[in-house]
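Practice set, problem 2.
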Amino acid sequence: MVGGGAAWARDDDRAEGNRERRGDSRGRVWRAGDHHVHSEYSGEFDTSTNPPKFIKGADAVYPIVTNAIMAKNFGLTWAMCTDHGGPTHSKVNLEQAYPDLLRSRRLVPEVLQFWGMEFDAPAMDHHTLMIPRHDDEAKMLHDLESRFAKLDAFPKDPARDTEAKMVEFLKYAKDLRQKPLVIAHHASRSATGLGVWGQDTPREFRNGNNAAPNVYVGFEGAPGHQAGPLNGGARGGYGSHPTYGGYDQMTARVGGLWDSLLGEGRRWWITATSDSHVHWTRGGSDFWPGEYSKTYVLARQDYADIMDGLRNGRIWVTTGDLITSLDLTAGGQGKEAAVGETITVSRRQRTDVEIEIRFRPLDGVNHNGDRPEVRRVDLIVGEITGPSADLDADTNPTTRVVGRFGPRDWRKQGDYYVIKHTLRDVQTDMYARVRGTSTEEAEPLADGKESPWEDLWFYSNPVFVHVR
């Protein structure tokens, strides 16, 4: 079915054997969260004084604990406050924001609340910097922000705003005993056309992932600010070139940049976030954490295991609560792998790969009072051909939709719907991923001013097949 080699494919059959699709033997289940939320500590700085004076609430307005309460209300079990940086902001984080986070953890224990920030990435747009939960987490963030965040220096230091500095940061982070996670935010918000990149470029993603593959692991597939059209703005704040079905063009375009990275065998994941600053009912462009976008991670309710799920791609994402559970597995020659995992099969035997998609629709109404329906599910596959000689490559011509499934194509099994599809005679390394929609669009269309609630999509991360 597919052809080529795979220099990057890893023989890491972590998922061989059968598993419980609604969890696994380690007590893992799908847990919804949001790693990009702002609090009143996203403020501004009066730089007429030395040191600069921090003014709280100038950009985002809600206390940390309010975000946690709303995250709990909208069904999240983990979340992360990612406030903006600025000159000497590392000290604000350490002395003001972190004590408030500790109070919020005590007041809302049902939501695991990670410590971190919206990192001012050198030479790039913003990124999640997620710190592992440990006794020195506050000191760790202070160290990373004060050393590497391009806006933390006062006065400004142009030497901090280079790609070399970003690579230096990632290499430093990779060597820490407690490894953080770095995920790019709204990666093509500054793009001016389809494939006309802005602050974030394919070359930078590749160089960063090469430097720290277990730290720099992905980008937002669905950026925040999804409520923009409800107040006359653009979804995601993408004013120069739009999102597609609420998703960044890097993710939404079949055979685009995400597929180009996956086609090298990179473990590069997508997430969905709120980027909550100010709720749309107060004149902002945002939904509350979990109100519209959710990132599901297969994990225990444990800080370390949720980070492990994010690091290793046990992730799927949705908008508008179109579905509440999604499993994608690939099986063959008595082995099976799920999202984020790899199945290794032998070329000596006939290599048919059985794909199973299992999803659970929302039982009831979403937070707009709607009963969304899945109209179609797409199975997308691409070949893994190894590292590209072109660091700027942003397409994978082997990627294609191999199956489009409607309600007549899936069968009900309890609360779930199940789709099965066979990939015949697989001869080379490949990956498979899934998306679904409430619309009739064959491919997600460029977003205008339509209500985001009328244009819902879900995406899985990939499962990999290694042919040996």
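Problem 2, part (b): a different protein.
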Amino acid sequence: MRNGMVLRVILILAIVVGINGYIGWHLKVFLSHVGGTSFHPGLYWIVFWLVALSYLIAWFGSRVLPSSVSRLFKIIGSYWFALIQFGVLLLPLTDLVIAVLHFASVSPMTYVPILGWIDVVVVLALLLWGSYNARTPVVRKHEITISKQAGEWKQLRVAVASDIHLGVIVGNRHLRKLVKQVKAMKPDLILLPGDVIDDDIKPFIRYQMGQTMQELQAPLGVYAVLGNHEYHGGHIPAFVEQMEQIGIRVLMDEVVHVEERLYLVGRKDKAAEHAAGGRKPLVSLIEGIDLAQPIIAMDHQPYQLDVAAAAGVDVNLSGHTHRGQITPNHLFTRRIFELDWGYLRKGNLHAIVSSGFGTWGPPIRLGSQSEIIELIIHFTSNDREED
């Protein structure tokens, strides 16, 4: 089993090196045609591999590199992830055109610079467009009806923000947009379904993001659950402590009876299944609660919606998928998850998956947009429900 894991790691590394080498070779050919005699191939490859491996350098060197240097490498590496995807999509098409022009006996001195500059312009346009989508969050409204009573409440307004990914890339500037838009919403309750931080807790503390996040206020409170990135970072106790200090309660396989009218179920992330303590099955979590009252569950990854529906959950809130973040990745998330974005009715369950407020890796979104969910829940004792 260990040998199999080693082989998989070697295979992944070989693919990563191969793809980067493919992109690097094309960039070298282009620069050699436009750089003239000033182009130095040896220096080029040194710089190229520093850029291509910058995220790994930041990751493994975080303990020994100065924080400013590690931060720079992580920013460069994050953008490089986007450039890799653009390269994988654009360069095969470029090669196809080159093949046609080659057989047409057109000189490379003519077509290489032209095709290269076309690719550069396309990439820059995609970066600008994707940056706008990532940095301009929208509010998406979902209005649902639950055929249960919640005391004298007729409706509940809930602000939902998943996958904020606070850290080196997503910081206070973007976080202030969340605070401003949520305040304008005037929610009764604020829910954060996982990945509040992006692996490492240190940037959150260093840049005092808690002070900004503390401005998220709601009469019924602010609650969060853990996402896979909190587990990847391995700073869960520190994260929970930071959240508690600013009045946000992190639910880890816990149930809260809100005003004795509504149950809020907060699950550990699916990653906890392989961590110490594991995570409880949903059925055991809600065992013994009054199913006649509304039940809202937060589960970062949108798996097993059928289990939530069968257990009597009324609303299931998730994130994690980012809707692929950069198209055409959404084609993969669609195949992995029954619902990778938006709304799905499954029996009496209302499932909602957000594309997330922040980003992982490059602060780029194509085919998706940073979003906050405004969820309005109507409560009724009627057997019929209206969506």
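Answer key, part (b): The chain has two domains: 2-133, 140-379. Residues 4 and 296 are 41 Å apart (CA to CA).
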